[in-house]
Automatic annotation (TrEMBL):
It comes from Kineococcus aurantiacus. Keywords: Chaperone. One of its GO terms (molecular function) is protein-folding chaperone binding. This is 10 kDa chaperonin. The keyword ATP-binding does not apply. Belongs to the GroES chaperonin family. InterPro entries: Chaperonin_GroES, Chaperonin_GroES_sf, GroES-like_sf.
Amino acid sequence: MAVPEQLPVRMLHDRVLVLPDDAAERKSSAGILIPATAAVGKRLSWAAVVAVGPHVRQVATGDKVLFDPEDKAEVELHGKGYTLLRERDLHAVAAPGDTDGGTGLYL
């Protein structure tokens, strides 16, 4: 995932700007392809952190984080859709080495 080198914003307070994964389809651990149109219950989403405010303590730019897509504010910068969150709205940070680039990160 390519992260823009220079964003036209400076994050304030405890805000985190993330670029959500746009995985339309996902694959189960058994290898079954689950289409994007499949009805599922409340599901959390993964995103890459692209900018953080000065009071953010637990995440850094480049981390992969888990958040609730219902608790989000969206913003468009340079034609790309980003999500703006507070640090307290993040549920988890992916451990280094556990991200294989696939969709296997599920809680």
